[in-house]
Design a protein that fits this description.
The complex is a heterodimer.
Chain A (H helix, E strand, L loop, with lengths): L1 H13 L1 E8 L9 E2 L8 E16 L3 E2 L5 H16 L3 E9 L4 H9 L5 E14 L2
Parallel strand pairs in A: 2-5
Antiparallel strand pairs in A: 3-4, 3-6, 5-6
Chain B lengths: L1 H12 L21 E2 L8 E16 L3 E4 L3 H15 L4 E9 L5 H16 L6 E15 L2
Parallel strand pairs in B: 1-4
Antiparallel strand pairs in B: 2-3, 2-5, 4-5
Classes of the chains: A alpha+beta, B alpha+beta.
């Protein structure tokens, strides 16, 4: 019974949630807009896009390359859309590697084994008409 | 003999894992709080950002879930709270995945294994559980 209680209490302390966000500015003229849905305005489809950034977390914490949502959207996706001549991206889907604090702590302890990390964003690049 | 029957019954029913979450917001919007939808918005809006939440929990002895690996807790709790913190009024195009749900058979196996463990003075069997939710945070223009 003591073992059970100890196990339960330890497990309750290990539960957690990891949250990552990216805040995008209101699109100004010439800036790229991004939406996970569709748009009502007439537009021309320029093509599909997938950006992927892979790297490692040094010492379980230091994201050298930038493999989070912030870097994925602002440093990878949006410049690429501009390069394609698009006004924005619709039907965006994304996924980044998320580690629990427990995994980060293990990464610090076993610092000689970097944690792999990745962000992938896909979408359809569009140019507004009119 | 009963054990064999039970095992057979579980083997027949135990291949599917189903996860349920409670309903999200109605359209038109009839309650306060953060608007939550797996589809689009019912009113004009502007997008202010994106969120990804990964809830982690532990399933104990195939019966109890401890932590934040519930769809409801992750969507209505963490996702909505983060959207509010970003200044959003809603989260649309929500996508979710329970990464490793247990089948009935797996739960039963862990329950039996835990029972056996407890009789021999060891702890119950556990399984790490993860649920990932993403969404687009919006502000309504009206």
């Amino acid at each position: 019974m003591r073992t059970l209680l100890l196990t339960l209490s330890m497990l309750s302390f290990t539960a957690c949630t990891v949250v990552n966000t990216v805040t995008l500015p209101t699109p100004a003229p010439g800036e790229v807009f991004v939406t996970a849905g569709d748009i009502a305005q007439p537009h021309e489809v320029l093509g599909l896009i997938q950006v992927q950034r892979s790297g490692v977390l040094l010492f379980g914490l230091i994201d050298v390359v930038g493999t989070d949502l912030e870097a994925g959207f602002k440093e990878a996706l949006m410049p690429e859309v501009k390069k394609m001549g698009g006004d924005g991206v619709v039907r965006v889907r994304y996924h980044m590697t998320q580690y629990t604090p427990w995994a980060h702590a293990l990464g610090v302890i076993f610092f000689f084994i970097p944690l792999p990390s990745q962000v992938v964003i896909t979408g359809q690049v569009v140019k507004l008409r009119g | 003999m009963r054990l064999i029957s039970l095992t057979l019954a579980l083997a027949v029913t135990g291949c599917n894992a189903t996860v349920h979450g409670s309903r999200l917001s109605n359209v038109p919007i009839d309650t306060g709080g953060i608007f939550l939808s797996t589809g689009g918005a019912p009113k004009p809006f502007r997008s202010i950002g994106f969120v990804q939440v990964r809830g982690y929990g532990v399933e104990i002895a195939g019966m109890a879930d401890v932590g934040n690996s519930y769809l409801d807790g992750t969507i209505r709790g963490s996702l909505a709270a983060e959207a509010a913190r970003m200044g959003g009024q809603g989260v649309i195009n929500i996508e979710f995945e329970d990464e490793n749900p247990s089948t009935d058979l797996e739960r039963a196996q862990r329950a039996m294994g835990s029972f056996s463990n407890l009789l021999s003075g060891r702890g119950p069997e556990t399984k790490d559980r993860y649920v990932t939710v993403t969404g687009e945070v919006i502000q309504f223009l009206e």
